[in-house]
Amino acid sequence: MEERLMVRLESAVARLEALSLRGGSVVESGGYDAAVTDPSVVAFEDFMGTYFGRVSSAGEKIGGQVLEVTKILEQALNVQKELLIKIKQTQKPDLAGLAEFLKPLNEVIMKANSMTEGRRSDFFNHLKAAADSFTALAWIAYTGKDCGMSMPIAHVEESWQMAEFYNNKILVEYKSKDPSHIEWAKALKELYLPVWSATAKAKAAAPSAPAPPPPPPASLFSSESSSPSSSKPKEGMAAVFQEISSGKPVTAGLRKVTDNMKTKNRADRTGVVGASEKESHTSTPSFSKAGPPKLELQMGRKWVVENQIGRKNLVIDDCDAKQSVYIFGCKDSVLQVHGKVNNITIDKCTKMGLVFMDVVAACEIVNCSGVEVQCQGSAPTISVDNTGGCQLYLSKDSLGTSITTAKTSEINVLVPGAEPDDDLVEHALPQQFIHMFKDGHFETTPVSHSGG
Predict the structure, then answer these.
(1) Residue from 237, 208, 207, 197 nearest 220 by CA
(2) What is the distance between the alpha carbons of residues 303 and 195, in angstroms, rounded to a whole number?
(3) Residue 70 in contact with residue 64, Cβ under 8 Å?
(4) Centroid of chain to Cα 430
(5) Cβ-defined contacts of 182-186 (< 8 Å, 24+)
(6) Global model pTM greater than 0.85
(7) Host H or E run for residue 53
(8) Which residue from 71, 108, 233, 402 has the fewest beta carbons nearer than 10 Å?
(9) Could you report the per-residue pLDDT of 218-231, keeping only the tens digit for each?
(10) pLDDT, tens only, 252-269
């Protein structure tokens, strides 16, 4: 099946290159029927049959909410296929038109997000992994390097980072239990990030002549055709991108986004207080090597804060209880979240400070070092995973918070004193435990230290 997919993709690329050289488009030659049989749409259908089929098969074995969210994912992919067809029949939309164009996809994404709200189910990690991965499907809104978002392949990879945290939890939880859950989690990842074989043997080169050196990498949406001998067949979503990006027809009908339409220049989307951005600093904030800094609301549901270095004045103040906040790859920065949100995740951050009011579900800290988190309102759950050095500041309203730790060290919790004017009282959470086998099972107690 995968070999046939590669053959069809190569044929589709050749067709798109020919169209690009002639300056033609699929829309000109047959309307809806031509759009349905367009190489990019055909490639997307093959991609769904091959890669989503694995997710669906595993979801059917598990059933329940996992099957339900898998079916929502199928709906989203079907909507995206229809949008691909519509692109080839739609003239240049303005900003409002682009939002209307993406509305069907956004509605399906909201349906998936609603499954993660409220009381946690036994399959919360499955629901979060699927729902967070839906942001990757917004790659279809990419209209050029000035549109305010990463290129499609980079956007999918960045979006998967948000889902991978929960996907990895599934792999750990069901490692020695039900293999269907492992199959589902691996298939979900392969849907977005192709996994290359580690055991397959490389094909022997023809003895007649040495292979020429590869050409320099071209732009994803370059109209120039690349040399067939140097192009490698791609898998999963990358194959679809290669198919779509081989020519201009997919994005030719969309209007170029002007400066005032970019996410980073829109006050209603960035969530950053403009006045504070102009304050002078003793040191100029640097940029992360991992990618450009981001602070934006994606698809109206997820605040993404990424690669912020040395920024002490980050603020999200236009949020609601249905939105989530994902903080990734930040260093020596401080973020304030004003208002109630559904959940907050801090991932791979160093010396990061977070101040928030209320969360509906949980505040999660994973793969971090030297972070400080202050809850000024309430939070049902705070989880700390694979983190060294974490200071948690709880308010009087959040003393009932359930704190979960795993693979952590130097976790301190500061709580209010008995009187309003008292200083905060610091408590160190145990990181060493004694396991004793008694009456047929192990009993675990934290190590206690005493001193004069």
Answers:
(1) 237
(2) 28
(3) no
(4) 32
(5) 183/54, 183/57, 183/58, 183/61, 184/55, 184/58, 184/59, 184/61, 184/62, 184/66, 184/70, 184/126, 185/126, 185/129
(6) no
(7) helix 53-62
(8) 402
(9) 332 233 333 343 44
(10) 444 445 565 555 555 554
